[in-house]
Design goal:
alpha/beta; Rossmann fold; eight-stranded mixed beta sheet
């Protein structure tokens, strides 16, 4: 009897251990190794269809907490990672170019062996999504969601007359050099609008300040001049664009509407009154839209 009980107990422990391992397969090591050895912090929660989240400029995995926490209970597997130089990832001081950044994204997708992926990119993350499709192909990607995107082209030019003047980006970089914390604190309404609590604004600011200053500045220089109009042809899968009509960071007429017009068959959802971070301020609606799209 004692032997039978011991065997039964051991079997139960093994079963429970396997179940826990299946639910949190990344528990042994929360880092992906990029090609150059840079460690990229990531989370991999839940089971079901995989959704990979690519955060915006100077943010990190935590900005998606209202999605990753909620959607794992809705039959989705949520994967998010900190871009190099951001959050808990290494700060290598190099690799802040689109080829390297999308190789990092590919490392996450391939090392977690993800397929039938819904790939979600916010703001600058939309450019990494576009470059990933161009460089690494579409075989693992089933759907794409672009949130408040930087695509297709932000900079003012002769053939993009409603773009943002280079002097604005130069002033942006100068302000980061002078007093990054003060500058970003004053700009939290750009992400959150005017209805967010002071505590939410302080929390978001803390995420911004976890990014190395070098990464922040190098990436402003990178995304501000990125002309991704030729990349729009790589969006051959179902594509959903979500953006607020009060987005003052990436104005809707310059970005979301032009992106939707350039991607055949894409769907644009405009959130009335929302700013640059609708996944925070309009999280319930955003989560419903993402859940419906990912299960489509």
């Amino acid at each position: 009897m004692l032997l039978s009980a011991a065997v039964a107990g051991t079997a139960a422990i093994v079963t429970n251990t396997r179940s826990a391992s299946a639910q949190n397969s990344n528990s042994q090591d929360p880092f992906i190794r990029a090609r150059d050895g840079t460690r990229l912090f990531f989370i991999d929660w839940g089971q079901g269809k995989p959704v990979v989240f690519v955060h915006g400029w100077s943010l990190c995995t935590d900005i998606w907490e209202h999605q990753t926490t909620a959607l794992v209970n809705e039959g989705l597997r949520c994967i998010a990672y900190d871009r190099r130089g951001h959050g808990r990832s290494d700060q290598p001081g190099r690799g802040y170019d689109f080829d390297t950044l999308t190789d990092d994204l590919a490392a996450v997708i391939e090392q977690r062996d993800l397929r039938d992926v819904t790939l979600v990119g916010h703001s600058m993350g939309s450019l990494e999504v576009a470059q990933y499709l161009a460089k690494h192909g579409t075989s693992r990607i089933a759907r794409v969601v672009l949130v408040s995107p930087n695509t297709p082209y932000m900079l003012k030019a002769a053939d993009n007359p409603d773009g943002i003047d280079k002097s604005a980006y130069d002033a942006f970089i100068a302000a980061l050099h002078q007093d990054r914390a003060k500058f970003l604190a004053a700009g939290m309404s750009g992400l959150l609008g005017t209805g967010a609590s002071p505590e939410m604004a302080q929390w978001a600011l803390s995420l911004f300040l976890r990014t190395s200053l070098k990464a922040a500045i190098d990436l402003v220089r990178l995304f501000s001049t990125a002309d991704f109009r030729p990349h729009m042809r790589y969006f051959t899968m179902p594509t959903l664009i979500i953006q607020g009509d009060q987005d003052m960071v990436n104005p809707l007429p310059l970005t979301g509407r032009k992106t939707a017009a350039a991607i055949a068959g894409s769907q644009l959802k405009v959130y009335a009154g929302a700013a640059h971070g609708p996944f925070l301020t309009d999280r319930d609606r955003f989560n419903r839209d993402l859940l419906t799209f990912a299960h489509g």
